[in-house]
Design a protein that fits this description.
Elements (H helix, E strand, L loop, with lengths): L3 H10 L4 E5 L2 E5 H17 L7 E5 L4 H12 L3 E4 L6 H11 L3 E4 L1 H10 L9 E3 L3 H6 L15 E7 L7 E6 H15 L7 E3 L7 H4 L1 H6 L3 E4 L7 H11 L2 E5 L1 H14 L6 E6 L6 H11 L3 E7 L2 E8 L1 H5 L6 H5 L4 E2 L3 E6 L12 E7 L5 E2 L3 H7 E2 L2 E10 L5 E5 L5 E3 L2 E3 L1 H8 L5 E11 L3 E10 L7 H11 L8 E4 L13 H9 L1
Parallel strand pairs: 1-10, 3-4, 3-5, 5-6, 9-10, 9-11, 11-12, 12-13, 25-26
Antiparallel strand pairs: 1-2, 7-8, 8-18, 13-14, 14-15, 16-17, 17-20, 19-20, 20-21, 22-23, 24-25
Helix pairs in contact: 1-2, 2-3, 11-12
């Protein structure tokens, strides 16, 4: 089982079907897309890479992203997609921990990375996908798809952990194929006349949804802006028609704001799959009122990507159901390929209506954490993934999340773990104690707020703390506010009461 077969099949069966676009400009049809990927796979094998080796991608959205992913898989390699917002120090850690053999970068961020990258214990060859050197890879004699076992590593995704060190989530070909098939059964049913638009990073969920669209030889559209621009999205949707996209709730709100304020019809935009953060009932009600029945919600984690629960169009539109308001505030029901339960700390299922930890079991659940057996044993017990999220199932199987992984902050769809930020702030000699929490934010969902206890009163310290963060972690993780206090609230065991801090922020 090798996911590269999805593209090889599409290239054989639908060779003239348009595949990748940058805006409205055709980049390749499926024959060319498939051939370029097969050639990249051949070139990588000729460079000495062997099945199972890791290839890292640090790119903004570009057609080359999918070419490299499928090319690496063709050669039997695993890919390591890296969030292009990460700080060079964080990128360096991922490259070293994954033992990546090669790094692909896009020109717009590759130069900056090279100039700021800390010295690594070993040299990692880098290929800029905007150069002639990359094009030479696409011209090699194509390689046939390398056989891989279902449980061989395909996608090594690094997610921040509460210890401050990212953990590598090992996703296999089986995991990703199950996720792909679930897209058709539970989320949407694209065909060859459909398109997926990448307004969110392809290194994350948006890119994972490409696999389903490759399977049916649909179009892949990359906005020329490389990011999220509501006017651009609507213009491209009108051009390509039957467009789907994945978006964080904050992106959905911005899109709805634009449609309403500009009084434009979202013609051609067929499906907006939202996830990666909380969507409040009033926000999805407004979205449907302004834009119509275009929305589907998914809830997943890196450890079970895009596939824990889903709230379908059918359920969102069932306004006559007596529990409609509760349902649209939920994350829906279990995906068809998994089982979901709410359990106590020992994994015993709890009755409907009782809060507990969300557990999931099925073929989408990760193989484990890369080279971290201890963390894997904590996360997966008797086949069940303990998500760390607190939720409640109703009698009909709808899951409502009551809290996220204890202290996780989700800002603009990106996960931020407070411990990571706290450890950086504590590097400043003037900082005695610090506690980082998320505060509600109208546009981003949450913003990072740091409560700081200084060793002695000091003026104008915020710029120094900002600089410390910018030198060590990604910009989006930097606190947006600092609250200076004399002491942090603690319980009898000396543990900081973050609930009290959050309460201070909301009144």
């Amino acid at each position: 089982m090798n996911l590269a077969h999805l593209l090889a099949r599409a290239g054989r069966t639908f060779p003239s079907a348009p595949a990748q676009f940058v805006g409205t400009r055709l980049h390749s049809d499926y024959a060319a897309f498939s051939r370029r990927a097969a050639s990249i796979g051949s070139a990588l094998r000729r460079q000495g890479l062997s099945p199972g080796d890791r290839v890292a991608l640090f790119m903004t959205n570009t057609p080359a992203f999918l070419e490299v992913v499928f090319g690496a898989w063709t050669a039997g390699l695993a890919v390591v997609p890296i969030n292009n917002k990460l700080h060079p120090r964080e990128v360096a850690y991922i490259l070293e921990d994954s033992d990546a053999s090669l790094l692909f970068v896009s020109r717009d961020i590759g130069a900056a990375l090279a100039s700021q990258m800390p010295t690594l214990p070993r040299s990692i060859p880098t290929i800029d996908v905007g150069t002639r050197g990359y094009e030479a890879l696409t011209e090699a004699e194509p390689l046939g798809v390398t056989d891989r076992a279902p449980d061989d590593l395909a996608w090594l995704f690094y997610t921040s952990g509460t210890t401050g060190r990212p953990k590598g989530v090992m996703l296999t070909h089986r995991n990703l194929l199950a996720m792909t098939l679930c897209y058709f059964s539970d989320v949407d049913r694209p065909g060859p006349d459909h398109a997926i638009l990448y307004a969110a990073p392809m290194s994350h969920g948006a890119g994972m949804y490409s696999f389903a669209h490759v399977l049916v030889a649909a179009k892949h559209v990359i906005p020329p802006s490389g990011g999220f621009d509501p006017a651009e999205i609507l213009a491209l949707s009108r051009h390509h028609r039957n467009v789907s996209m994945f978006a964080a709730p904050t992106m959905v709100k911005r899109l709805v704001d634009h449609v309403e304020s500009a009084s434009v019809e979202p013609l051609g935009l067929e499906t907006v799959v939202y996830g990666g953060g909380p969507m409040y009932a009033q926000d999805i009600q407004r979205a449907m009122r302004v834009m119509g029945p275009r929305f589907v919600q998914i809830y997943g984690q890196g450890e079970s990507p895009m596939t824990i629960t889903t709230l379908s169009r059918r359920h969102l539109l069932d306004t006559t159901h007596p529990r409609h308001l509760a349902r649209i505030a939920s994350t829906g029901v279990a995906h068809s390929c998994v089982e979901v339960r709410v359990a106590d700390s020992d994994g015993r299922p709890l009755p409907a209506g009782t809060p507990g930890e969300v557990l999931v079991r099925g073929d989408t659940v990760m193989k484990g954490y890369w080279r971290n057996e201890e963390a894997t044993a904590r996360a997966i017990r008797d086949g069940w993934l303990f998500t760390g999220d607190v939720g409640m199932l109703d009698a009909d199987g709808f899951l409502t999340l009551l809290d996220r992984s204890k202290d996780l902050i989700i800002s603009g769809g990106s996960n931020i773990y407070p411990r990571e930020v706290e450890e950086v702030l504590l590097l400043h000699p003037a900082v005695h104690e610090v506690s980082v929490v998320g505060a509600p934010h109208e546009e981003w969902g949450e913003e990072v707020v740091a409560f700081v206890v200084l060793r002695e009163p000091r003026a104008v310290i915020e710029p120094e703390l900002d600089r410390l963060c910018l030198d060590n972690i990604a910009r989006f993780k930097r606190p947006k506010r600092y609250v200076f206090v004399d002491a942090l609230p603690k319980n009898n065991y000396g543990k900081v009461l973050k609930t009290e801090l959050r309460q201070q922020l909301i009144g």
